[in-house]
Amino acid sequence: MTGDPWSARAAAYVESDAHREGEDLNLLVAWAAGGSRALDVATGGGHVARRLREAGLEVVTSDPAPGMQADVTCRAESLPFAADAFDVVVCRTAAHHFADVRAAVRELARVSADRVLVVDTLHMGDDVEEAEALRDPSHVRNYTEAEWRGFVEEAGLRIEELRTLEHSFDFASWLERTGCSGEAAAQAEVLLAERVADGRLTLDKVAIHAVKGR
Predict the structure, then answer these.
(1) Cβ–Cβ under 8 Å, residues 94 and 41
(2) Angle in degrees, CA 67, 71, 77, rounded to 5
(3) Which of 33, 40, 51, 177 is the most buried (most CB within 10 A)?
(4) Hey, which bits of the chain come out as E strands?
(5) Type and span of the H or E element at 190
(6) Is 84 helix (H, G, I), strand (E, B) or coil?
């Protein structure tokens, strides 16, 4: 997708039930404990930053979309920060949009002095990938657990803990948030039929706590 589809969606991501809560968000806050300065990469609606600030951390936010009103506008693949600038670097539910996920993870590792925390949707097969692209053409790809382990280790990080989680949220809102309607929405619903029940979509996520230099 060309241009910036995200700025116009900023308010929707602030209100998004799929983003403002969840077991994965609670886990990131717990994993960040003991840090003092954090970077929230691809902050979107700012939910990670909000929770980390509530936990007492000083947080800098970054996002490629100006409309998300992050502290710094930049891509994850090119973070304008010094090496080891943050105790904790976090990226939640965004990496499947990155043009070069390997480069992004290397950047997360470079600017972290201690730990890198990542949550993203797992690869669940071709039907889910097709539905994701129909719903949002900026989707690049979800990755498998094995691929994520490779990205993290290639960046010089060691995985301290990895968890797989199920995340359930309102299906209609998920479609509406990106303006997916009509034939595309109907096709996405068919592709995701096995994962939608009682109006809620359940996707698999991976949560990774990685550490640097030990």
Answers:
(1) yes
(2) 85
(3) 40
(4) 37-41, 58-63, 72-73, 86-92, 112-121, 157-170, 196-197, 200-212
(5) helix 182-191
(6) coil
Per-residue pLDDT reduced to its tens digit, 142-196 = 999 999 999 999 999 999 999 999 999 999 999 998 899 999 999 999 999 999 9
Superfamily of domain covering 7-124+138-168+203-212: Vaccinia Virus protein VP39 (3.40.50.150)
What pLDDT is attached to residue 158? 97
Q: Which residue has the tokens 């480069």?
A: 103
The pLDDT, as a whole number, for residue 2 is 40
pLDDT score of 60: 98
Q: Where are the domains of the chain?
A: 7-124+138-168+203-212
At 3 the pLDDT is: 52
Burial class (CB in 10 A: 0-12, 13-18, 19+), 53: middle
Helix, strand, or coil here: 73?
A: strand
Complete DSSP assignment for 14-66? HH-HHHH--HHHHHHHHHTTT-SEEEEET-TT-HHHHHHHHTT-EEEEEES-G
Q: What is the pLDDT of residue 67?
A: 86
Instruction: Count Cβ atoms within 10 A of the Cβ of residue 112 and give its class: 0-12 exposed, 13-18 middle, 19 or more buried.
Output: buried
Residue identified by tokens 């996002």 is 63
Could you give the CA distance from residue 56 to residue 34 in angstroms, rounded to a whole number?
9
pTM comes to 0.91
Selection from 123, 53, 39, 43 nearest residue 82 by Cα:
39
